[in-house]
Queue: 2 jobs
Job 1
Amino acid sequence: MTDIYKNIETLFPSAGSRLLKDVIMSEYTTFRLGGPADCLFLPESIEELQILYSYAAERHLPITLLGRGSNVIVSDLGIRGVTVIISDNLSGTEFAEDTIIAQSGASLASVAGQAAQRSWSGLEFASGIPGTVGGGVMMNAGAYDGCLADSVIWTEYLDEHRYLRRIDNADHEFGYRRSFFTGSRKIIVRTAFRLKEGSKQEIFSKMADLASRRRSSQPLERPSAGSAFKRPAGFYAGKLISDCGLKGFQIGGAAVSDKHAGFIVNLGNATASDVLAVFCHVQQTVKKMTGVLLEPEVRFAGDWQSAIDELNSCHII
Ligand SMILES: Cc1cc2nc3c(=O)[nH]c(=O)nc-3n(C[C@H](O)[C@H](O)[C@H](O)COP(=O)(O)OP(=O)(O)OC[C@H]3O[C@@H](n4cnc5c(N)ncnc54)[C@H](O)[C@@H]3O)c2cc1C
């Protein structure tokens, strides 16, 4: 474990506080839980990513890639190998006519805010999604009347061999909370979005309206990873969960939110195992009572051992 850290330190001798060891992941996830990452690296350039991934590939060293950790649950046992966080250190943006080009670590809120300041419309829906451009494109994040697929022009990424490539919108294979990048080892580094000129006042007023709708319907006062389950065809996950009498259902410090049954929240002292237990109970109860299998929207990271086997259709990163 120390060796991994020491070896990575040799690769990036001037990384300073961008390279950390035994870091408790609760600080890096919106669920505010999860055990230690053996070695955590915050790259600030594409070249650093290329060096790290080539090094890791040669040594079969596992890498876990995260953005703002707003769609993940990290195991209580933490994450082995190297955890790479692409966030504020790779978050530059450039504007050119009706296009904004954002590095993958830029937060969706900041990109939407910068566009609004310049009276560009099209990303208002994304202003309340607490993730990065990279995590958002990977998930085709969406809310209310929009999703990123509607405005992406192109994305640049590092492929499995660490070559920089670019794809146009049509090649993203966007679907509901998925894309060409889902389940792959590709790393999104930059995305260009097409926007429309609008009225600054209307853009900000739409963003304020969506924020207020979120605050009144979602448990934003509690740590979570957003919607726990994907919307099953023909149903709403929250309504199914609520109709099964599961609002407020609690195990340890994790519970189905009283405010919105589609969210599983950390009441303050939840472990990742508590959260997993609530996910399993909800999935099993809803399946038994309605026949619908809810598929987790959140992704599971780190060392879950066999604990995760009980949860169906979940994605481990
Ligand atoms: C309160 C709350 C509200 C939310 N509301 C919404 C909503 O309205 N709509 C919605 O769609 N989501 C919502 N989410 C979920 C989440 O914010 C989105 O899925 C977001 O896009 C995840 O981005 P992230 O940077 O946090 O990714 P992470 O959670 O860090 O990672 C998610 C996945 O993306 C991958 N990933 C991250 N960065 C990259 C990269 N650069 N290249 C390749 N893969 C990458 C990771 O490996 C992982 O598999 C909400 C979450 C919370 C906590």
Note: The chain has seven helices and 20 strands.
Job 2
Amino acid sequence: MELLDNLKDIILNANSFQKSKNYYFENHICSQTGNNIKVNLDFKLSNEDNDKIMKFGVCNHCKKVFYYYDFESKSF
Ligand SMILES: [Zn+2]
């Protein structure tokens, strides 16, 4: 349930969405604090059908969600 709760919390409370330039994290000047905040893209959503993945994370201060699209590299 924890992951589902995480997902619901992030998506339902999202203030806005912004494409990240990085697979792992995004630095942004937070509108809430005025500080440069590093947001780790801790979560990964994957589509088994087309191998697309979306990494995402949220700034806990301003609730802006950063996401990054990629393709899963399959190891055979
Ligand atoms: Zn922020």
Note: DSSP finds one helix and six strands in the chain.
